[in-house]
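Re: NDP structure - here you go.
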Amino acid sequence: MLHERLSSIYDNVLRRNPGEIEFHQAVREVLESIGPVLGKHPEYAESKIIERICEPERQIIFRVPWEDDQGEVHINRGFRVEFNSALGPYKGGLRFHPSVYLGIVKFLGFEQIFKNGLTGLPIGGGKGGSDFDPKGRSDREVMRFCQSFMTELYRHIGEYTDVPAGDIGVGQREVGYLFGQYKRITNRYESGVITGKGLSYGGAQVRTEATGYGCAFFVDEMLKARGTSFDGRRVVVSGSGNVAVYAIEKVQQLGGVVVACSDSSGYVLDEKGIDLDLLKQVKQVERHRLGVYAERRGEGAAFVSGQSLWEVPCEVAMPSATQNEITGRDAELLVRNGCVAVGEGANMPTTPEGIRVFQEAGVSFGPGKAANAGGVATSALEMQQNASRDSWTFEFSEQRLQTIMRDIHGRCLQSADEYGLPGNYVAGANIDGFKRVADAMLSLGLI
Ligand code: NDP
């Protein structure tokens, strides 16, 4: 239920952004959490902070023409939504996936504002991408696309302005091509203009692993708060991309047994525990579909398509693929099968009904804004190293990440407690992130 004033703000968001359903969902979730904050802080309403936060500072849409290996010309659409720069330069990844349209970019950019606030680091919120599908494209085609994309994007970004990174479909290969083109056009070796770079040209240790590792650290904290740990627990992780692979790696190091993971073609069930080397070989090196993992793994592993991954019984679930992948029904099934903790590696992977089911059942539910913030936090550390021409060791960087995730966990619980919602990580994350941004906006005047 929305507070009366928030309800009219939400109606306005629906009216001004027709058809952008993912953006509506992301706004509603935040508005549902911050009602109690407005009671204590009338100054936010007086300065129309919420109305301002819901309106991006700038939205850029552009044409991306490119040529495939056969010489055929393709036209894609590029986006960058620079949502809020009260805390620092816009910061957030680029997504290349055929489903990308303005509503997806805005939902991701909006979430990013609060997530970045929650990290306590000086970064604003933004997001971008394209409806380009890198699947099945050669390296050369991906390179030509990235070069064309950057040929427009370069004029909008910069280390003090807007700093993109990766997301779905944008990994180190794409970041390399994008940075290469930026460097060529601007004649500047401006390392801090993009994060997620390779180690040989300004990347930071642990950035590749950070989102997945960070999510595992966050879930570890939630389990500790319940008086337990990962040790010997059955875990299911959706996806098999960047976030999922490193979530699996860290969960295994913490003693959990990951029995299933997925991609868009189906899921693999491997009761002995996922063989991570094989998974990396199949998905990252050879870029195959997940069925190939099951074929090579042999007995004990099965590939299942056309069914929900969430039917696999587990004690911990880590949705790490895409938005709205856990429905209310999936959540009910997970609860019935004994799930006690959910950590969102992906952005908004649980529907509002799913979240309600988990919270009513007493499942520890870590929303993406908090649980996957390790990626952007480590990106901010990459910017810090770039600015000081320094590079830290893997061990030191991982330690920093773990401390950041522990702090975020603590801040979520503390804010939830302060507003009378103990144990509610969703409310805690939204309130803490919102207050940081709102306070900065108040101080900066009418911007
Ligand atoms: P990747 O492209 O590396 O991997 C995405 C994975 O999810 C793949 O296994 C992909 O399967 C699967 N997937 C994507 N879309 C769908 C879909 N519509 N249905 C089913 N499966 C799908 O992306 P990331 O791992 O980087 O990102 C995963 C999630 O984590 C996203 O929500 C992203 O926003 C979020 N995130 C990522 C961060 C990062 O640092 N990379 C930081 C914070 C959040 P397939 O290969 O078959 O397409």
